[in-house]
Structure formats: structure tokens, C-alpha cells
Batch of 2 targets.
Target 1
Amino acid sequence: MDLVSAVEHYDVVVVGGGPVGLASAWHAVRRGARVAVFEQFEFGNERSGTSGAERHWRLQYTEPDLCRLTGEALPLWRDLERASGETLLHAFGSLWFGDVDVATNEGKISETARTMDQLSIPYEWLTASDIERRYGFAHLPRHFEGFVQPDGGAVDVRATVAGLLRLTEAAGCVLRADEPVRELAPDVDGVRLSTPRGRYRADKVVLANGPYANRLLEPLGIRLELNVFEMALVTLRQRDPRARHPFWFVFQEPTEEDTNLFYGFPPNSWQDTDHVRIGPVFEVNALSDPERATGTPDPRHVTRACDWVERHLPLVDPRPLVRSACLAVLPADPERQFFLGTAGGRCTGGENVVIATGGWGFKFVPLLGKVCAQLCLDGATTYDVDRLALPAPTRP
Ligand SMILES: Cc1cc2nc3c(=O)[nH]c(=O)nc-3n(C[C@H](O)[C@H](O)[C@H](O)COP(=O)(O)OP(=O)(O)OC[C@H]3O[C@@H](n4cnc5c(N)ncnc54)[C@H](O)[C@@H]3O)c2cc1C
């Protein structure tokens, strides 16, 4: 056998077996492409940017284009639910409240309300007293206001990943666990890849390796302005298991130490539990390398989140049951939210490398997957995501 025929060849190779990589593989394999996914750990691992039971599903964004995209993601979620036979989106409302003009990575309450007005997305405006009376919050500053958007809620993370794994495998996609891609070498005809187990060739590569994106891009002369944070997640017990509140996110002025933002889920509607998960969203202490993650949350961040709950959410016992951490990978430019596009113009053969990383991306999983598959198989996407494309190289 000569060396060329020894190299396995695929139409599409996906680097990273998280939800975005699996969704890209599913959309590509459904269209008849020969697809392989390489995952450095086991599939379904919770060591990178995806962990825990749930992620916030919301229609609202401050930016109208992202707001439209969540609407476009919805039918793709329904399609995935039909194919996997599971309910993945659970709507119990999305409550944003606090200082309405505070600008955060999540957005700004006042501007988001304007965007929802423009796009005819329904919501109810609430005062601090309304929020306290209706949902059991307490001692909120009197100037706090916000809205509840009834179609928001949560995505079932584990059912999504498990469903995508089943679907990709059943459709004939090659799934390679414990096989990290060490190097990419794009050229005008495709991309060569190497792993500790072999060498491969693909017409197109999807880079869906979350916090590790720059590790494969830097040798190609490309560096995405991304920050990686190890964010705390805390599990608590709800005192009254029957009480129900929406997903909530509180927008507050930053303190000297941190971004002062907290969120929480109600007990999962798909699990019989009185546990709730809360978290701080502190963009502090960015990691210089995702490998430096410790897997344990900063105790101060856990305390800050539990203190907020103790003061403002008497419905929940503030003593932590479980403390965990997960890698959030956010573009340094908060306006951008995501990197989604090809590396065309950035290196030889860059048009053959499709990149999807960054941002609060779980809610967009099936859409990101479809966009990546379209960019691989059609060279263009039908979705309006130009703004998320890689920036043009800066001239020296
Ligand atoms: C605390 C926290 C809360 C969040 N909350 C929300 C939310 O409420 N709503 C929302 O929409 N989003 C939220 N997000 C973001 C969302 O979870 C992520 O956008 C999404 O899970 C990322 O999925 P992914 O497939 O892109 O990346 P990942 O899940 O990070 O998967 C990347 C995979 O690539 C693998 N990999 C890396 N390098 C290689 C390599 N060289 N070769 C092979 N494999 C490799 C990794 O092992 C990993 O399995 C949150 C994130 C965090 C951390």
C-alpha cells in the first residue's frame, strides 16, 4: 500500500466532539457527506465548555441580528427534537432584571426591550415589587426593573449531546474518541490533519474545539481574540419544591472585584429534583491556556453567588450542595459574541477551514451546526452571520 492510499480521506472532518461539532457532523452527514469527528477525550465529556444539566434558552438579544438568529434556531431545535425523539427545549420563561442600563456580555435590558418591540417578540415589563411578589425574590433595590419573556427557559444539555451522538453514529459518521488533532495543514485542495494515531485528509475541516481553537490556529498565523474563564456553577436546594420561577439573570453595576452578574435556573422540569443551579458570570482571571483550568471553582465566586441568593432569593437554601466549574470562552469584543466563518484569506487554504467558537452558544447549537455544514458543502450559508466572520488580518 502506498503512503497516499494509507491516508484516510473524508469530505468533512470535525475537530471537537462537543455539541457544536456533533451538530455540524449531523448536518453534514445528513446531506450525504463522509464525515469523521475527532474528540481529544471521550464523547459527552464535561471537561471543556459544556457541562451540567441545562443552559439558558432565550429568544431575546440586544443585537437585532442575534435576536433573529434565535428565532431561526427554533425550527432547527424542533427538527432535532423530532429526529432524537426527545424534548430538548423547555419553556418556563426568561426573566432579566436589575439595572436596566448596565451593559454586560449578556446584553443590556433597556436596549433588549427595544429590540423585542422592533421584532414583535412578546414580553412583560416588571418592577422590583412585581418581581418580588410574583417570583419570591426579596430586598431588591427599588430601581430594579426588567422583563419576563415567556418563550425562554432551558435546553437539556445532556439529552442534546446524547441525541446528536446517536444520530451522527446512526447516519454513518465516524466518531473517534481519545484522538486529539495535533496539527492542521490546509492547502488549496483541502486540509491534512494529524493525530497521535494517524494522518488524515479532508476536503473541509470544521474547527469546533471551543477554548482550544487558537492552539490549532496559531501555527497557521491566526489568533482569535478570545478570553477563556473558568466559571463557577453551584447546586443548591430549593426550600419549597413546588415553587416555580423562570430562569433569572440579574444585571448589576460591576464591583471593583468582579462583574457582579448572577443567574439561576428553577428545578429541572425533566428531572424529579428540588435542586437548582445558580452561577456568577465573572469575567475575571482569564486563563492564559485552557490547560491551566483547575476544574474547581474560585471559592470567592461561589460565596458571592450564595450570598446573593441568601439576600435576595429566600426560596432557595444558600448552602452549596455541589460546586463545579466550566470553561467559558468569550470573544474579547463583547459586541461580537461568536467567531463563525472560514479562515479564507487568513492563510493558504483557509477557505477549507470553518471555525465555530466562542460565546453563549448552546442555544444556537443546531443552527451553528447547519451553518458549518453549509460552509463546508456549499461554500456559503443561507443565514445572516457575516458579522460573526473572522476579522480581516491586521496589516503590520
Ligand atoms: C458556565 C457556563 C454557562 C453557560 N451558559 C450558557 C447559557 O445559559 N446559554 C447558552 O446558550 N450558552 C451557555 N454557555 C455556553 C455554551 O455552554 C457553549 O457555547 C457550548 O457548550 C460550547 O460547545 P462547543 O461544542 O462549541 O464546545 P465544547 O463543549 O468546549 O467542545 C469542544 C470539544 O473539543 C474538544 N477538543 C478540543 N481540542 C481538540 C483537539 N485538538 N482535537 C480533538 N478534540 C478537541 C474538547 O475536548 C471538547 O470536547 C455557557 C458556558 C459556560 C461555561
Note: Residues 15-21, 38-41, 45, 48-50, 55-56, 180-181, 208-212, 216, 231, 233, 279, 326-328, 359-363 surround flavin-adenine dinucleotide (CB under 6 Å).
Target 2
Amino acid sequence: MIKTVGVVGAGPAGVAAAIMLKRYGIEVLLFERRTVGGLLNNAWRVENFPPLEPCTGEELCRKLEDRLTDNDIAIINEEVTAIRDRIIVTRRARYKVDYALVATGTAPKRLPTLETCSRVVYEYRDIPPGTEVIAIYGAGDMAFDGAVRASLRGSRTLLFSRSETLRAIEPLKASAEKAGVELHRAESILRVEPDEALLKITTSLNVYSADALLICIGRESLIPRIDSDRCEIIGDARGEIYRQASIAIGDGIKSAMKIALEG
Ligand SMILES: Cc1cc2nc3c(=O)[nH]c(=O)nc-3n(C[C@H](O)[C@H](O)[C@H](O)COP(=O)(O)OP(=O)(O)OC[C@H]3O[C@@H](n4cnc5c(N)ncnc54)[C@H](O)[C@@H]3O)c2cc1C
């Protein structure tokens, strides 16, 4: 019988699973290496979650945190390094569980040659405070979402897309145009050199100065070392192409129900 479940990751998938398990009377150990809400912490505006009015990602994260508190679920603020048979391993300790749900989300696709200093980041929340000019590299929803958020916050925002084609959905493209994002299509970033407090960004067409560079060129599944068949991967970590908070939440709920009802 499953009495204790370790949930690794407190993004939407992990939080939903943890709450549902708790409702079935199952003890939950919820691990998070950063903050509750996961990638949603970066979202400018979440408009596709029908039960809620459009709101910021940070507001949604606060709601997730509140629901954890309501359900008496504490966060274990530790990074999980491995899952062995019925043992969850962190840098500090080992935790015995009957089953594990791996809700660790995704990691960014990186461009190591551009990572010349700490002002080159892969998530909006890592942009240093006081950034007045931000360069963003990417052409998908995450790049455009970040560009709109930065621009509305008052930063001059330069968005560079390697190709002419922009993958972001139309409403985000329209919001970016309205917010005054400076769009540079078919302009690859070739080099980034720290230059005093600024970054000197050389593209295929020109040279620019910016305070920081946000790279959003895609993400891929992130999973700790697993040597156990007593676990399941849920949410974005599953590596499917369709990745949304609501899908991750549904996934978490479904897996929790399967554990509770099928053992
Ligand atoms: C800019 C942006 C805008 C978005 N806008 C929307 C939107 O409008 N609507 C929508 O539905 N979705 C949106 N999304 C997508 C949504 O955020 C993700 O699909 C969702 O957060 C995935 O949930 P998850 O729980 O599977 O993974 P994540 O949210 O990635 O959470 C994984 C968590 O696991 C933690 N973790 C990872 N490894 C470990 C480890 N080894 N030990 C401990 N903890 C670990 C991470 O720190 C993280 O908190 C957006 C995403 C971004 C980046």
C-alpha cells in the first residue's frame, strides 16, 4: 500500500499532485529547489486558464502557494539529485517514500558561447534589477511574453529572431507591437561581450548595447537520475511538445488519483 509519496518539483504539476494526494490521506513530501509555481513565475499574463480571470504568472504562483498552505503541505527546499528504489536523495539527506512523482519541468536549450557573464539569462525572473535595455533572443511565446513584460515595465526591449518566421501566437505578437518592442527579424546574435556595465551584442547585421540578454530558444525535459520503477514523470518533464500549466495540473491530478485508487 502507498502511504508516502515524494513529489519532486512544486510547479503546477507537482502542486496539483501533492494537494490531490493529501486529499486521499496520503502523506506527501514535496521538494522544490527554487520557488513554488516553477516556470509560471516568468509569465507576463496567463489568459488561457478558463476558470480564472486573466492574471499574471506571479499571481497564479501565489495562489498555488496558498493552496499548499490551506492543505498543510510544507515545501522541502532542497534539490533532488537522484531517485533510487524508494529513496529520494538530496544534497542534504535521504527520504524514504513508497512512490515518487517527478514534476521537474524543463531546462532551457542553451547557447554556451553567448554565456559570457551573469547578465545573460534564460528566465525572465533572472534578469538583474535595474535593467533599462534588454535584448531578447527567440521567436516563440516565451520570448514574446518576456518582451511584452519588459517593455511594459519600462525597459527598452530589442527582440532578435534568427529567422524571418515568428512562432509566437498572434495575440502575443500584437501585444509586443503595441508595447513598443523593437523587432529584429532574421538577425542572429553572434557574440556577446561584457563591456563595463553593459553587454556589447554583435548580430549578423549590427552591434548593440544592452544591460542584459534573455535567451529563449526552446526548452527540453529535465529529469534527475532515476533508478527506480516506483515512480512516474508528470507535467512538462514528460517532454511532450504541448506544454501548458493547465495540462501540467491535469497530469498531476490524474497521477495522484491513479496512485490513490490503483496503488
Ligand atoms: C514566459 C512563460 C509564459 C507562460 N505562459 C503560460 C500561459 O499563459 N498559460 C499556461 O498554461 N502556461 C504558460 N506557460 C507554461 C507553464 O508555465 C508550464 O507549462 C508549467 O509551468 C509546467 O508545469 P510543471 O509543473 O510541469 O513544470 P515547471 O513549472 O517547470 O516546474 C518544475 C519545478 O520543479 C523544480 N525542480 C526541477 N528540478 C528539481 C530538482 N531536481 N529538485 C527539486 N526541484 C526541482 C523547478 O525549480 C520548478 O519549480 C508559460 C511559461 C513561460 C516560461
Note: Residues 245-262 form the longest helix (18 residues).
